[in-house]
Structures are given as C-alpha cells and as structure tokens.
C-alpha cells in the first residue's frame, strides 16, 4: 500500500487546475466507481484533470511516488481498467468540451465525453460520428479500441473517422497526432487502446445523419431456435449497403411496446437501422414480415439520438458483469447451432449475446491503415456477456459465458476478438486480437512513446525490448 502524506496531496493540488481527490474527500467514491458493479478498487489518488498540463503533472507525480497509473474516460471498460488499487487515476470527466464545425463536418470533443454528449451536439446540425450502441459509454476507451456501432456499415469504425488527437504521452509532453504529425502514434491510437498516452481531445470527421432515422426491431421466442436464427442471418447478409444491424440473444425488455406475456421472456432479436429514408427501410421490414412471425416488433421513425439510446436500459450501471468475444467470418449453420444450444442456458435476465455485423464501409479500409485488432474482411463480432444483479447469478452466468465461448471458439476466425469486448486478458489473446504483425508494430511504437510501460490497460502492449 502506497503511503502518501498530506504534504504530497497538497503539492499535487497546488500544481493542478483540476480537482485532486483523496479517499477522505467527498466525491472520491463516485469518482472511483465504474460501470461494472463487480469492480471495487481504492486508488490512492484521483486527479480530475482540467487539461493536458494537469495530465502531465499527474504523470510526474505518479513517477516520483512510484504509483501505478490508470486512465478513466467513461468508466465502461468491463474489467474496470479505469481504476487501480493504490495507484493514481487520471480521471478525464472534466474534459467534456465539444465543438462542432458544420461547414468542415468535424467534431472536436474532450477526452472525457460520453457518446450521448457527442451525439446530441452533432445532431444540432444533423451530423454524427460513428460511435457505439450504449450512450453513456466513453468516447475515449471506445475510440481507442476501434468503435463499433449502428453506423459501422455506413461510415466505418470510430477510428476510421478519427482525424487527430491531442495526447499526453508518458514523458508528459502534449503532442498532436494526425496523419501528418507523429503518424506512428496516430496509427497506434486508432485501435491500440489506452497503451500510448492520455488523449485529452479528439477530432472526428462527422457525417450527415438523421435527425430522423428508421428503426425496425423484431423479436422471436427462444423456442424458434435455429429456424429464427437462420432467417435473421439470411436477412442480415441481404441488407442494403450501409444499413445498421444487430442480432442479439436476450430477454424481451419490460417496455410498453412489448406484449405483457412476452416481456422478460428469452428470444432472439434483430434490429435494423435505416439511414436512407423510409422507403428503403420499408422494403427490409416487408421482407422480415414475410418470414417466421415475430412475437413483437417495433417499427418506427425515431430521432438518431434515441436510436443511440435504444439499448441503454438493457445495460444499467452497477450490474456484476463479464464478457468474452470472438470473430466469426460467417454465421454458418454450425455457429447458429451453437447459439441455439447455449443461448437458452443463461440465467440472469440481462445476460445477452449481441452480434455485430462488420460489413460494407468497414471492409473498404485497408487492414494496415489502423491498428484496429481485426482484419477488414467481412465478419461478425460475437460477444457473450453476463450482467447479473447478485453474486450467485453472476457466478452461474460467468460460467455460461465461458462454456458458450468455448463452444463457439472452434468456428472463430480469431478468438482474440475485439479488445474492447474482453473482460479478461492474457498476452496471447491480446496478441491474437491484433495479429502478430500489428502487435509487433504496436510494441515498437510503444517502446518509442512509453518505454517504461506507464500505461498498462488490461489489453497491455508491452514495449518491444529490441526497439
Ligand atoms: P473506461 O473504462 O473509462 O476506459 C477504458 C480504458 O480506455 C482505460 O483504462 C484507458 O486505458 C482507456 N481510455 C479511456 N479514455 C481514454 C483517453 N481519453 N485517453 C487515453 N486512454 C483512455 N464498444 C463498441 O465498440 N461498441 C459498442 O456498441 C459497445 N457497447 C458497449 C456497451 C456496454 C454496456 C459496455 C460495458 C461496453 C461497450 N463497448 C462497446 C465496449 C467499450 O468500447 C469499452 O468498454 C471501452 O473501453 C469504454 O470506454 P470508456 O472510456 O467508457 O472506458
């Protein structure tokens, strides 16, 4: 346990424009809390940075006192990487300024923003940056790992739309990374996670989207098994280019649009999100309605910002959570058989298997253009996750996640999967997630910017020793 004296806190406070919280301070508990209720860590200090200078000061303080460092964006990382026991948390929650340039179609945002904030600001002028599917996820962690959401098929990953980043590297220097400045660092930031520095400001390319988009949500009972799953798969592979989609094994929500007798029952959902007007979407809806009858559907125009919050109620903060993910090239009949066998075995009502199709614009970006840990061949990211209200259900469904994932693994194109969908890591899986070539390149870049491995998120890329 690191022992810091009052004079240490005082010195750090004097040098920082932001707030510095000790365990004795009001606000400390809120600041150390993350999305996963199973994570309960006690940092020695939490430095709520007001800008790059505070980040540099905090890094120097941590170095002088031998403290481990963690970086907190939106706090959504399932393993709780944002907080560390006995170390120093650099909390970016105060960095929330957003500037939208409607003419240039760019959005600048602080490193502590959530997607809800960026979505709301962009939509003031009908623009959107491809983000995630849960609105209180942090822009920071989601972007640095890749960023998959409703707009991936239309405009690519979040990292494909990152234009530049203001980043404080381990030496305390604030750098501007872009295609022209520190291009190696810029490449690494686009997929390499929180390994390379603290991003205080992101600049994104934004696209005209909405403000009204088209939603189609369909749900089939779990008993329909492979019949429903094959129909959903065939529908997804035939979708018009750029249409957003998600497949999920889950319980029907207790929402007003769900018939009372169907609420909370398990099944399979297909969500199709249309950005090209009602006519194109209506064609897809008609196709879905011609298939096996759904237990309920919700088909409606909705504001883009509401689409971005559609599944928020299914992932409340404070649940005990765990996940494992992998990529499959296709949803073959064999993969669907595994899903139909294992999905009914979950116990916690909120445990879920979301499947993200990675297609269209996602596939047009060259593999080596970014550090994203997945090839750009079309594929599906399959994520098996538990969110449980108590330790007993958590233990049951964590075992379910592991069994399910193990049964899927023989069909995977990469069992490394997407680094942002990993609740536990080992070096082999992280290496597998990136592939040897990208991992080695990242490791060499790491040696240049963080030779002492100050930034050590769970999916850690250690500095190359021979660099
Ligand atoms: P945090 O826990 O705050 O940060 C995670 C790590 O990212 C930190 O340890 C740090 O290393 C790094 N980090 C964060 N911000 C910065 C920064 N500004 N500078 C440097 N490093 C930083 N992912 C998707 O792609 N699409 C989805 O639709 C999606 N949905 C999700 C839904 C839920 C309910 C959850 C729990 C996760 C989801 N994710 C999704 C995964 C998500 O991308 C990761 O959990 C991501 O790490 C969250 O970022 P954060 O800033 O909220 O996390």
Shape, principal axes of CA atoms = globular
Uncertain segments: none
Q: Using only CA atoms, what is the Rg? A: 22 Å
CATH class descriptor of the largest domain: Alpha Beta
Tell me the CATH architecture of the largest domain.
Answer: 3-Layer(aba) Sandwich
Number of helices: 15
Helix % is 25-40%
Give me the count of strands.
Answer: 18
What topology, given as strand order, has the largest sheet?
15-12-14-13-17-18-16
Main sheet characteristics: 7 strands, antiparallel
Q: How large a portion of the residues is in β-strands, by DSSP E?
A: 15-25%
List the ions, cofactors and other small molecules found in this model: flavin-adenine dinucleotide
How far apart, in Å, are the first and last alpha carbons?
33 Å
Tally of separate domains: 3
Question: Pairing-aware structural class of the strands and helices?
Answer: alpha+beta
CATH topology name of the largest domain = Vanillyl-alcohol Oxidase, Chain A, domain 3
Nearest-integer average pLDDT? 96
Provide structural commentary.
With 467 residues, this protein is α+β, with helices and mostly antiparallel strands. The chain is globular and about 70 Å long. It has three domains: 6-91, Uridine Diphospho-n-acetylenolpyruvylglucosamine Reductase, domain 2 (2-Layer Sandwich), CATH 3.30.43; 98-209 and 437-449, Uridine Diphospho-n-acetylenolpyruvylglucosamine Reductase, domain 3; 212-421, Vanillyl-alcohol Oxidase, Chain A, domain 3 (3-Layer(aba) Sandwich), CATH 3.40.462. The protein is built from 15 helices and 18 strands. The two termini are 33 Å apart. It has helices at 6-15, 28-32, 52-65, 115-123, 139-145, 152-155, 183-189, 225-237, 278-289, 304-307, 333-342, 361-364, 391-408, 427-434, 436-449, and strands at residues 19-21, 45-48, 69-72, 88-91, 98-101, 106-110, 127-128, 162-168, 174-178, 198-205, 207-208, 212-221, 244-251, 266-274, 296-303, 320-328, 353-358, 379-388. 30% of the residues lie in helices and 23% in strands. It has a seven-stranded antiparallel β-sheet with strand order 15-12-14-13-17-18-16. A five-stranded antiparallel β-sheet has the order 5-6-10-8-9. The longest helix is centred in the C-terminal third of the chain and has 18 residues, at 391-408. The mean pLDDT is 96. The structure holds flavin-adenine dinucleotide. Flavin-adenine dinucleotide (FAD) binds at residues 34-35, 70-78, 81-82, 92, 111, 132-134, 137-138, 140-142, 144-149, 193-194, 198-199, 315, 420, 457.
